Amino acid sequence: MPAISWRTMPFVRATILCVVTLTLLYSCWPEQRLRHPPGVLAPREPEQGPAPAKPPWKRGLFDIRPLASFKVEARILSKAHYWFDAESELSPYDLALGWGQMSDQSIIDTMSISQSTRWYHYSWPSRHPPIDDAAIIHQSSNMHMIPASKAVAGQIASAHVGQVAVIEGYLIEATHDGWRWTSSLSRDDTGRGACEVVWVESISVRDR
After folding, report:
1. Is the pTM of the predicted complex or chain greater than 0.70?
2. pLDDT tens across 161-178, in order?
3. What CA–CA distance (Å, rounded) separates 39 from 103?
4. CA of 85: how far to CAs of 58, 111, 116, in Å?
5. What are the sequence ranges of the domains in the chain?
6. Which end of the chain is more exposed for a tag (fewer CB within 10 A), N or C?
């Protein structure tokens, strides 16, 4: 490989700075959000079944072990793209999903919903929540998406907040060299470890 001349160094630095700036701007660009008339868009609760009779498999350096079969039809409440954390090689996107009352525009309009550092955050301006706090916990969740293929990765990347997504696959545990990422198996837990880690075999989205 030829050495980089000192004359080219300013150009190289400028190029790197430009790439970093564009990446940061892209990450901060407002996500397209669809709005809907009031009403529940995704009435059914997620379906979770026994772990499939399927041996663990590899994704790069990671060992993947299925813990349960999983299917969810839910409204996309928020979407976050991650590049630099330990999990991003497996899961570049998190989706905060809502079903039941948490797919109703009239409820969502009373809340502030966001994601950061692999967490899903919600709040409301009034003294009392728009629905019971236990219902918010049970009917929404932050889920770490691990695409099973490049086609699925592209579908996740192109999904928009406000769309209804049907996601099928497995809740999994991923391990590598002492590192472990284990999915929650409950819709009622909170705090660290409460997110679902989803191996996505298929995803389809629609505007309603």
Report:
1. yes
2. 999 999 999 999 999 999
3. 8
4. 20, 28, 12
5. 47-206
6. N
